[in-house]
Amino acid sequence: MERTLYTVRFPLMGGDALLKFVDDRGEAAATRLGREAVAEARRIEQKFSRYRATSVVGQLNDEAGGAPLAVDDETEALVRSALELARLTGGRFDPTVGVLRQVWDFKRAEVPAEAAIQALLTRVDHRAVELSHGTVRLAREGMELDLGGVGKEYAADRVAELLKARGVESAMVNLLGDVRTVGRRGDGAPWLIGVQDPRDRARCRFAIRAQADCGVATSGDYERGFEVDGVRYHHLLNATTGWPARGLASTTVVAPTAAEAGRLATASFLLGPECGLQLLEATPSVEGALITEAGELLATSGMARISDLPAGA
């Protein structure tokens, strides 16, 4: 049969997800494959969502301060990934920072009082997440684990690997803006991934040419936030202060997997322009671009080779 490009759109994690893949086994086979891919993404959402009392994360939060909870290998690996990201950023990222949503309400657009933030920061500490072989425990009562900082990119990788295992050689998985590609497009050209301007969401600031299997992730202050008196407050909180990280408007990273791209996009955003760029330059097989709050674009030395950015941007 003729090779055909199939497109599947579906809601996920409170946003929109997109799956494109090329296959030559016919409409019925492609439909089954699309459903299987969507089911895998939703399985991960249901298993790790902090909003579901029956999820692993919901159970861990219910048991905070109590006994360890037995977990499977997948959960242990995802928690370990979150803790490694916390160490990489010197605690600026912390998988227990979600408790601060009690005072940071980005829909109501209210700036919380410093005293309210400080009171909750006593429950934010990745070092109090006890990870052993087969168990996880939150050591302090009132702590909350949130794997949203690593779960979405993990899901993109899992869906991509499922498609590859089913014989797909050309695919793009886009879960709310975080992307994992498989091979090139069906016509042999690279997958093109646009990166929006953080201050003009209708404008594409630059595009990435995904040459083969890779992950692309962006962290930005425009995803959830508000402005008060000319100051932008957003959901990417520095867990050491309880306040939004400053210096950057967005960071985009290209890495071998979506999980690594997401981890480094978050880390570089929280570390700021200078240290964030240094981190990306020092990491093998990784390129990235950072846009400062003032609109300046900073890119790693090899970013121009895989994007439409000019050399030296």
List the helices and strands and how they pair.
Layout: E1 4-12, E2 15-23, H1 27-48, H2 56-62, E3 69-70, H3 73-88, H4 114-121, E4 129-132, E5 135-138, H5 148-165, E6 171-175, E7 178-182, E8 191-197, E9 200-210, E10 214-220, E11 225-228, E12 231-234, E13 237-238, E14 243-244, E15 248-255, H6 258-271, H7 273-282, E16 287-292, E17 297-299
Antiparallel strand pairs: 1-2, 2-6, 3-5, 4-5, 6-7, 7-10, 8-9, 10-15, 11-12, 13-14, 15-16, 16-17
Helix pairs in contact: 1-5, 5-6, 6-7
**Percent strand:** 25-35%
H-E order: EEHHEHHEEHEEEEEEEEEEHHEE
Strand order of the largest sheet: 1-2-6-7-10-15-16-17
Count of extended strands: 17
**In terms of per-residue confidence, which ranges show pLDDT below 50 for 5 or more consecutive residues?**
none
Oligomer class = single chain
Estimated helix fraction? 25-40%
Annotated CATH homologous superfamily of the largest domain: ApbE-like domains
Largest sheet: 8 strands, antiparallel
* Category from helices, strands and their pairing: alpha+beta
Tell me, what is the CATH class of the largest domain? Alpha Beta
Q: What's the helix count?
A: 7
Total count of domains: 2
Give the integer mean of the pLDDT values.
Answer: 95
Coarse morphology: globular
Please tell me the CATH architecture of the largest domain by its name: Roll
- How large is the radius of gyration? 20 Å
